[in-house]
Amino acid sequence: MIDALRELCRNGPVVLFGSANRPEDFSRYLSDVNVLTLGGGRVSSVNGRISLVQMDPDALVNRCYYGDPLCIWLVKDSKVLCGSLPELKFIVTTWTIDSIRQLILNNVALMYENVILGNSSWALNNAYYAVKLTIILRVIDSPTLRDLELAKLINGGLSKLLLRLHDLRIAVGA
Q1: Domain count of the fold of the chain
Q2: HEC string of 56-124?
Q3: Per residue in 49-67, pLDDT tens?
Protein backbone atom coordinates (compact mmCIF):
# COMPACT_ATOMS: atom_id res chain seq x y z
CA MET A 1 0.00 0.00 0.00
CA ILE A 2 2.89 2.39 0.72
CA ASP A 3 4.14 1.93 -2.85
CA ALA A 4 0.69 2.80 -4.21
CA LEU A 5 0.55 5.98 -2.12
CA ARG A 6 4.05 6.97 -3.27
CA GLU A 7 3.03 6.43 -6.87
CA LEU A 8 -0.08 8.55 -6.33
CA CYS A 9 2.05 11.34 -4.81
CA ARG A 10 4.10 11.53 -8.00
CA ASN A 11 0.93 12.55 -9.86
CA GLY A 12 -0.23 15.35 -7.54
CA PRO A 13 -1.74 16.04 -4.12
CA VAL A 14 -2.91 13.02 -2.14
CA VAL A 15 -5.26 13.17 0.84
CA LEU A 16 -6.06 10.35 3.26
CA PHE A 17 -9.50 10.52 4.87
CA GLY A 18 -11.81 8.37 6.97
CA SER A 19 -10.99 5.93 9.74
CA ALA A 20 -7.43 5.40 8.50
CA ASN A 21 -6.80 8.78 10.18
CA ARG A 22 -8.44 7.62 13.40
CA PRO A 23 -6.67 4.54 14.78
CA GLU A 24 -9.30 4.20 17.51
CA ASP A 25 -12.01 3.78 14.83
CA PHE A 26 -10.00 1.71 12.32
CA SER A 27 -10.83 -1.98 11.89
CA ARG A 28 -8.01 -3.90 10.25
CA TYR A 29 -10.34 -6.23 8.33
CA LEU A 30 -13.36 -4.00 7.73
CA SER A 31 -11.95 -0.52 7.13
CA ASP A 32 -10.72 0.50 3.74
CA VAL A 33 -8.23 3.30 3.17
CA ASN A 34 -9.95 6.30 1.59
CA VAL A 35 -7.69 8.34 -0.67
CA LEU A 36 -8.38 11.47 -2.73
CA THR A 37 -6.00 12.45 -5.50
CA LEU A 38 -6.07 15.76 -7.30
CA GLY A 39 -3.62 14.77 -9.99
CA GLY A 40 -4.13 13.07 -13.27
CA GLY A 41 -2.49 9.92 -14.40
CA ARG A 42 -3.07 6.27 -13.84
CA VAL A 43 -1.83 4.28 -10.90
CA SER A 44 -0.89 0.66 -11.43
CA SER A 45 -0.39 -0.54 -7.87
CA VAL A 46 -3.66 0.48 -6.18
CA ASN A 47 -5.13 -2.56 -4.44
CA GLY A 48 -8.54 -3.44 -3.04
CA ARG A 49 -7.78 -1.91 0.36
CA ILE A 50 -7.62 1.58 -1.14
CA SER A 51 -10.84 3.36 -2.09
CA LEU A 52 -9.58 5.90 -4.58
CA VAL A 53 -11.38 9.12 -5.53
CA GLN A 54 -9.77 11.14 -8.31
CA MET A 55 -10.83 14.62 -9.42
CA ASP A 56 -9.40 17.95 -10.41
CA PRO A 57 -9.09 20.77 -7.82
CA ASP A 58 -11.82 22.97 -9.37
CA ALA A 59 -14.32 20.11 -9.38
CA LEU A 60 -13.54 19.42 -5.72
CA VAL A 61 -14.04 23.06 -4.72
CA ASN A 62 -17.40 23.11 -6.56
CA ARG A 63 -18.56 19.82 -5.08
CA CYS A 64 -17.82 21.05 -1.54
CA TYR A 65 -19.51 24.39 -2.17
CA TYR A 66 -22.66 22.62 -3.38
CA GLY A 67 -22.73 20.18 -0.46
CA ASP A 68 -21.22 16.88 -1.61
CA PRO A 69 -21.14 14.68 1.53
CA LEU A 70 -17.63 13.53 0.56
CA CYS A 71 -16.48 16.97 1.67
CA ILE A 72 -17.64 16.34 5.25
CA TRP A 73 -14.80 13.82 5.54
CA LEU A 74 -12.33 15.96 3.61
CA VAL A 75 -12.95 19.06 5.73
CA LYS A 76 -13.30 17.35 9.14
CA ASP A 77 -11.30 14.18 8.85
CA SER A 78 -8.42 14.28 6.40
CA LYS A 79 -4.65 14.31 6.33
CA VAL A 80 -2.68 15.63 3.37
CA LEU A 81 0.02 13.09 2.53
CA CYS A 82 1.67 15.15 -0.20
CA GLY A 83 0.95 18.39 -2.05
CA SER A 84 -1.85 20.62 -0.82
CA LEU A 85 -5.61 20.88 -1.03
CA PRO A 86 -7.32 23.97 -2.37
CA GLU A 87 -9.29 25.90 0.24
CA LEU A 88 -12.58 24.05 0.69
CA LYS A 89 -15.80 25.68 1.82
CA PHE A 90 -18.36 23.03 2.69
CA ILE A 91 -21.98 24.14 2.69
CA VAL A 92 -24.77 21.85 3.89
CA THR A 93 -27.48 21.76 1.22
CA THR A 94 -30.53 19.65 0.46
CA TRP A 95 -28.21 17.56 -1.73
CA THR A 96 -26.09 16.85 1.36
CA ILE A 97 -29.07 15.77 3.44
CA ASP A 98 -30.68 13.72 0.66
CA SER A 99 -27.37 12.00 -0.16
CA ILE A 100 -26.70 11.04 3.46
CA ARG A 101 -30.25 9.71 3.83
CA GLN A 102 -29.73 7.58 0.73
CA LEU A 103 -26.40 6.31 2.10
CA ILE A 104 -28.17 5.30 5.32
CA LEU A 105 -30.81 3.36 3.37
CA ASN A 106 -28.14 1.73 1.18
CA ASN A 107 -26.22 0.56 4.24
CA VAL A 108 -29.37 -0.84 5.87
CA ALA A 109 -30.18 -2.73 2.65
CA LEU A 110 -26.62 -4.05 2.43
CA MET A 111 -26.76 -5.06 6.09
CA TYR A 112 -29.84 -7.22 5.45
CA GLU A 113 -28.32 -8.64 2.28
CA ASN A 114 -25.16 -9.62 4.15
CA VAL A 115 -27.22 -11.20 6.95
CA ILE A 116 -29.07 -13.31 4.36
CA LEU A 117 -25.77 -14.27 2.71
CA GLY A 118 -24.30 -15.24 6.09
CA ASN A 119 -21.62 -12.57 6.04
CA SER A 120 -21.93 -11.28 9.59
CA SER A 121 -18.75 -9.16 9.53
CA TRP A 122 -19.93 -7.09 6.58
CA ALA A 123 -23.47 -6.92 8.00
CA LEU A 124 -21.93 -5.47 11.16
CA ASN A 125 -19.96 -2.97 9.09
CA ASN A 126 -23.07 -1.84 7.22
CA ALA A 127 -25.04 -1.49 10.48
CA TYR A 128 -22.19 0.59 11.90
CA TYR A 129 -22.19 2.95 8.92
CA ALA A 130 -25.98 3.29 8.91
CA VAL A 131 -25.96 4.31 12.59
CA LYS A 132 -22.92 6.57 12.23
CA LEU A 133 -24.43 8.35 9.21
CA THR A 134 -27.70 8.81 11.12
CA ILE A 135 -25.78 10.53 13.91
CA ILE A 136 -23.75 12.62 11.44
CA LEU A 137 -27.02 13.76 9.90
CA ARG A 138 -28.24 14.90 13.34
CA VAL A 139 -25.03 16.76 14.24
CA ILE A 140 -23.86 17.73 10.77
CA ASP A 141 -22.26 20.98 11.94
CA SER A 142 -20.12 19.17 14.51
CA PRO A 143 -16.37 19.44 13.91
CA THR A 144 -15.71 15.74 14.55
CA LEU A 145 -16.26 12.34 12.97
CA ARG A 146 -14.63 10.35 15.78
CA ASP A 147 -17.00 7.70 17.10
CA LEU A 148 -16.52 8.42 20.80
CA GLU A 149 -16.91 12.17 20.29
CA LEU A 150 -20.00 11.73 18.12
CA ALA A 151 -21.54 9.50 20.79
CA LYS A 152 -21.05 12.26 23.37
CA LEU A 153 -22.91 14.77 21.17
CA ILE A 154 -26.13 12.79 21.38
CA ASN A 155 -27.69 10.82 24.18
CA GLY A 156 -29.77 7.73 24.36
CA GLY A 157 -30.07 4.53 22.41
CA LEU A 158 -28.44 5.71 19.21
CA SER A 159 -25.30 6.74 21.10
CA LYS A 160 -25.13 3.38 22.88
CA LEU A 161 -25.72 1.53 19.62
CA LEU A 162 -22.88 3.38 17.89
CA LEU A 163 -20.49 2.56 20.73
CA ARG A 164 -21.53 -1.12 20.74
CA LEU A 165 -21.13 -1.41 16.96
CA HIS A 166 -17.81 0.44 17.20
CA ASP A 167 -16.52 -2.07 19.76
CA LEU A 168 -17.73 -5.07 17.73
CA ARG A 169 -16.21 -3.68 14.54
CA ILE A 170 -12.84 -3.13 16.22
CA ALA A 171 -13.00 -6.64 17.72
CA VAL A 172 -13.45 -8.12 14.23
CA GLY A 173 -10.24 -6.37 13.18
CA ALA A 174 -8.27 -7.48 16.25
Answers
A1: 2
A2: CHHHHHHHHHCCCCHHHHHHHCEEEEECCCCCCCCCCCHHHHHHHHHHHHHHHHHHHHHHHCCCHHHHH
A3: 788 889 999 999 999 999 9
